[in-house]
Amino acid sequence: MTQGQQFRQQLEQPGILTLPGIYDCISAKLAEQLGFEVIFTSGFGLAGSTLGRPDYGFLTATEMLYSVSRIVQAVNIPVVADIDTGYGNPLSVIRTVSEAVQLGVAGIILEDQEWPKKCGHFEGKRVISTAEHVQKIRAAVQARGDSELVIIGRTDARAPLGLEEAIQRGRAYREAGADVIFIEAPQSLEDLKAIGTAFPDVPLFANMIEGGKTPFLSSQELQQLGFKIVVFPLSGLFSATKAMLNCFRYLREHGTTPGFEHLVSFQEFEQLIGVPYYRQLEQEFAVRQEDAT
Fold first, then answer.
1. 26 in the same domain as 115
2. Quick one: CA dihedral 108, 183, 6, 217, positive or negative?
3. Are 107 and 80 in contact (CB under 8 A)?
4. pTM of the entire structure?
5. Mean per-residue pLDDT for 70-76?
């Protein structure tokens, strides 16, 4: 069974899927360890953690896919990848999606912003025409082949063109072959309710960013509004940043870390990254003295 097929099975189950935002292999393994069924690679998180830059289109397709590939290899649960705009025209989308399929990605988000894109909760976004993005969705459908990769059609039209235009685009992207519809950055509870009403039979994707433009609701509240998937893309990144800030501040002030309580132990980290497994492999393939003579 492909990861896409597994993700589709999860979408067919009752209830809402809650996805944590992942930006490296450690965050991915922690999410898996805690029992999350699906994880999401955040473009914002990858740009920040790998480049130290904002989500302003700085990441190339190669950089994004490299990071995603490492995360997919690190876990045994489906990974949904943010592939921004597909990095070009429909031909570029075909290449990007084909490579995502080869990497074992379970789902992708493909958005309709002009390049260079921006974080969906930043100001100054611009979108391409509906017709252009419809062709990109169609190209992605063709490129996935029989992998059953889940295609999430995203529109950022709410801010520049209004909610009604965003809903119309969502309908067009669904007709073009998107499996899930994602209207980014609704600006009120009324927006969220209108989206749920407009797509009664379509899986809907919600994006919850602390401090973002959308009212911050729980998974249960979003399920009641008609959403099927909710991602918390930056919660892990924000919490890890805060934890490191406090740790480094303590180290700077005290010249040591004993007394700073918020650290996992060396042994706990060994378990997370699989040191016991690799020790066993090391022993299995060790050259014994009698074999070396």
1. yes
2. positive
3. yes
4. 0.94
5. 97
